[in-house]
Amino acid sequence: MIIRRWSAAALSALFAVLTTGALTTSAVADQSEPEAEEGPPPRVELVLDVSGSMRERDMSGGESRIAAAQQAFNEVIDAVPAEVHLGIRTLGAGNPGDDREAGCRDSEQLYPVGPVDRTEARTAVATLRPTTGFTPIGLALRGANEDLGDEPGTRRIVLITDGEDSCGEPDPCVVARELAASGTNLVVDTLGLTLDDAVREQLSCIAEATGGTYTAVQDTDRLAERLNQLVGRAELPVENPTAVTGAERCQDAPRLGVGVYADREEFGQHRFYQVPLAAGQELRASVSVAADRPVDPDYGVLLRALDEDGQELVRGTGAGSGRTDVISTGLRYPLPEVDGEDGDDQERRVVCLEVGSSFSAPDAVERTPGLPVELTVDVVSAADEPSDVAAFGLARGWVPLVLLTVVGLLVGLVWGLWVRMGTAVGRA
């Protein structure tokens, strides 16, 4: 019995030593990573429709739409994290008459984007009273975009309305596409307080153009919950693509390094970009094209790597039919080293990336700005390959294989010794 206890203790100790070694390796790897630098604070602006229809009492419990919105706003104000800068803008709040020209300019900032003084913000929300005004959603989106500023970092607009735009100019969908094309990484989420099909279609278009979400809500508690979710998303770190403009031919193309890039591509257009590559390196590139407006059901995307003479090196293609938000493809192109040549003599070349898509759309669909394009460029070499210990406790590469093999052999030896000694003691 004593021998068995000793053997079990030895087995436990063996696992402890091996596990400690693995954890120490992981800890050292973690400590070598540089700490992330703090960026600009995330910014969110709530845009609320305060037109006359917000008096309707069709929310849960017989509450008016404006009362439900005010309650939800107050809950968001109480819960907003200190690092999130929050602002509030209204539309249709200050024009009680039927002057269309004045009503379609009726959008004001109720509370400036910045650190939240909860008392002041709640007081401002309490003053809101529905008018008989118009609903200039496109104008309000432009105003909210200006309120958020153009500094890098998270920028979100949450639009809450019970109706579609009643002014027509500027068209909210066109405005959303313009804002998405501006390179300021703006996301617009929309909340509809009715189940009207026209409202759903317009709010979906706005959200889709900017990578946001649309939600129909007629329950007061659900409205507050959804608002808090959307404001909370502003805390999530984002990788902001660098705005770039591709050329119409390779010779004029911008030169790109490793990174994520955002561009726009008209229907039927091809865009070109240059990537420098040295022998021993491998180019890895991917592209995504988003359908931010109604398109015909069959489409494709093409990504080609070309040499400086226009000769195709490799290509990636994707195709689809029906309805999708994004279609993507990628490619890999290695430039091998030449044996016997030192680093200075090794080949260097410029690889040209060509991006094209075969989207088409009905004549009534706006052609400008072009479809959103996101291009990811990575260049790796043997020295850049990921380490053998992966994040999140998972391992990859040959080190884990050797470690597991050694552990298996040692456990087998200990187990065999334990069984033999136990058998010998039993016979004695």
TrEMBL record:
This is VWA domain-containing protein. Residues 43-230 form the VWFA domain. It comes from Streptomyces millisiae. The chain crosses the membrane at residues 397-419. Residues 1-29 form the signal peptide. Keywords: Membrane, Signal, Transmembrane, Transmembrane helix. SMART domains: VWA. It comes from the Bacteria. InterPro entries: CLCR, VWF_A, vWFA_dom_sf.
